Amino acid sequence: xxxxxxxxxxxxxxxxxxxxxxxxxxxxxxxxxxxxxxxxxxxxxxxxxxxxxxxxxxxxxxxxxxxxxxxxxxxxxxxxxxxxxxxxxxxxxxxxx
Length: 97
Prior knowledge:
- Helices cover 37% and strands 24% of the residues.
- The chain has four helices and four strands.
- The chain has helices at 2-6, 23-31, 51-61, 76-86; strands at residues 10-16, 38-44, 65-69, 91-94.
- Strands 3-2-1-4 form a four-stranded parallel beta sheet, with helices on both faces.
- The longest helix has 11 residues, at 51-61.
- It is globular and about 35 Å long.
C-alpha cells in the first residue's frame, strides 16, 4: 500500500534539447496545474545551451521533478524511448518544450 501512496499517478515526459528559450515556460505551465499527483521527468539530450542549468534549478525547488542529462546524444527518437522507459506510474503523457 505504501508504494501506491508514494508513486505518482501520472508521469509527464519532457524530452529536451537546446530548449533554453522555451523550457522555463513549459515547466512553469506544467507545475502550476491544479492536479498535483504527478512526476515530471525531463530527459535532456546533452544540450549545448543553458537548458540543463534551468532544469537543475527546477529539480531542486520541486520534488515532483526528476531531471536526467544524457552524457552522450541519443538522438530524438532514442531520447523519447529512454524517457518513456523511466516512467513507473499508472499513466503517462508527453509534453513538448
